[in-house]
Amino acid sequence: MAASGYSDLREKLKSMTPHRDDYENKCVDETSNGKHRKRKHRESDDDEYEHSDDSTDLREQEARRVRSSIQQKTIFTPEECALIEKKIDEVVAQAEAGHYREHTVDRAPLRNKYFFGEGYTYGAQLEKRGPGQERLYRKGEVDEIPSWVHELVINRLVTNGVVPEGFVNSAVINDYQPGGCIVSHVDPLHIFDRPIVSVSFFSDSALCFGCRFQFKPIRVSEPVFVLPVRRGSVTVLSGYAADDITHCIRPQDIKERRAVIILRKTRPDAPRLGSDSSLRASLAQKPGRLKAKRSHRKADPDAAHRYPPARANTPEVFMVQTKLRKVRQRTSISSDEKLVKM
What we know:
By secondary structure, the protein is of the alpha+beta class. Helix content is about 30%, strand content about 20%. The protein folds into 2 domains: about 260 residues, Jelly Rolls (Sandwich), CATH 2.60.120.590; about 55 residues, no CATH class. The strands form 3 sheets. A 7-stranded antiparallel β-sheet has the order 1-11-6-13-4-3-2. A 4-stranded antiparallel β-sheet has the order 5-12-7-10. One of its GO terms (biological process) is mRNA export from nucleus.
C-alpha cells in the first residue's frame, strides 16, 4: 500500500527524461540494425552521457548478451494468477495486522517487501555500504515460506523444469503500487546461487538492465535492455544478466499495482548476522595498535582525554604529531616544554 505523503513518481520522471512507453520498441535483439543515441555503460556519477557509433555498438552487443542469458515462460493461467493474487492480498493483510516477525516485512514508499524462508540486510540497513556487505538474518528472524507458495508456485516451476526440487529456500514478495520502483542492483553473489527466478502478478511491467538512478530530483538513464514481463510470466536470470549488469524497475514501468514473487536459493557459505562474532573476538585480543582501528562508537569514552600510543593510527594522534612537527620547526626548546605549551 502506498505510504502517505508520497506521490506517484512517474509524473516527476515524465517531465525530466524522455522515455518511450512502448516496451517492445525499446528491446534490442540480434536482428536490429537501427542506430540510437546511447551512453557509455557504467559511467561514474560525474560523467556526462556520451553518444557515438562505438558506444552504440557496444550497447547493442551488451543487450544481446543480456537477452541470451534470460529465459521466459508463461506458465500460469489467468485463473491461476487470480488465485495466487488473492493469496498475496492475504499476506498484505497479515502484515498490516502485525502477524509477521519483524524482519519479514520491509516497507518503503510505493513498494513493500515480504521475506520468507531467508531474509537479508541491504541498502540503508547495512552497517557498511557497498557490494559484499549484505548479510542473511539469523535463522528464525523471518517467517517460513507459506505453504501456498510451495503448492501454487514452486511446485509448478519444478514440474515445468524451471528449478529442481528442493532448490528454493528463499521467497520474497515485492508488492508495487503505481509509480513504485526498485533501484539498479545485482542480487548479491555471495548470498544467492543462480538462477534467479521471478513470477509476475496483477499487471504487465518491464525489467530494465544497465540503468543508472539519480535522485533529488529522481532521474533514470536509458536502459541497455528492456525486458517486458507479463502477468503470469516466469523470468529466469543467470549468467551475464544475473551477475554482470544491474537490473531495476523504473517508476514509469509500474502503471498499475504489480507484485512479483522472487524465488532463490541461498549459498551454503553465505555470511549471516552474528556469524563473524568470533572474528571480532580475535581482533579484540590483538595488540593495541590494531584496536585503534575499531569504530569510535565502541571506544572508551575517556580515551580522547588521554595521550594515545605514539604508533596508533587515529585522528587524535595525527593531530598531536602534526602539532609537534610544527613546534619543532619553530623552536628548539625541549620536548617536555613543547608538550606543556600544547
